[in-house]
Amino acid sequence: xxxxxxxxxxxxxxxxxxxxxxxxxxxxxxxxxxxxxxxxxxxxxxxxxxxxxxxxxxxxxxxxxxxxxxxxxxxxxxxxxxxxxxxxxxxxxxxxxxxxxxxxxxxxxxxxxxxxxxxxxxxxxxxxxxxxxxxxxxxxxxxxxxxxxxxxxxxxxxxxxxxxxxxxxxxxxxxxxxxxxxxxxxxxxxxxxxxxxxxxxxxxxxxxxxxxxxxxxxxxxxxxxxxxxxxxxxxxxxxxxxxxxxxxxxxxxxxxxxxxxxxxxxxxxxxxxxxxxxxxxxxxxxxxxxxxxxxxxxxxxxxxxxxxxxxxxxxxxxxxxxxxxxxxxxxxxxxxxxxxxx
Length: 342
Prior knowledge:
The chain has twelve helices and ten strands. It is an alpha/beta fold. A hairpin with a 2-residue loop joins β7 (about 150-155) and β8.
């Protein structure tokens, strides 16, 4: 890498769902500033994200977050010091994406610096790259969150091969629905993970979905239904629900399903460098299973980089910028933007 590239400051902006995030990244890995405004408390009463509400909160948060991030990064003259504005342009909620893209366009125009729209999923891949200099292509990345469960082969940065994904619910979505059935708060993933630690994973025989299938494909709808049906049956009998055991048994089935398909992908491709990303990448059982896998080079993102953040967007944007990619002021967010052809 040329020395000039090592000193480029990228302003990363992320607003694909309900978190507003801004970061300043020097080169591809040095985080100069990183800020996030969470809307979690705003959406908890509704049991999920309200898109219009989320967009309005982004509108309120972006300017003060950006000003503070620049201050912490020591940027007093963005026209001279910022070399790139990278922003999530999809996939995600249209209103939330639009707020971020319009803010990035305004800054790019005002500062006269290049603009680059980043795919949110490519950002998740780069969450590992920022923290692990030794992670180089080819490698496998399993993106697993409330909206995504996919295994991707990173042949080189900018070239991604879709190996398989979910037919229905994403893993994180199943966590949220099971948590709701148990009367647990939203978001369900962290709560189920915490309760599972004190439960018996063999208390209930919930099947790992599609575990015996020769395809790299996931399906969590049936597992979710099985767990919810068991919960209803216990309630109908007037018995107390062993919440910790249900959580542990459900989590075991999800982890088995994810690990089975990741092993299959490794065998089919011959690739043994493996990473994960997305909100469920913070899950304790999944991380432990990966670290215990023999023969793999495993890369786990820090837990604060598993969920949506702007560092990953800045890193993906900087890498694309080095590849020669640019966006114009006609950049339009795409809530269904696919990173690869299935």
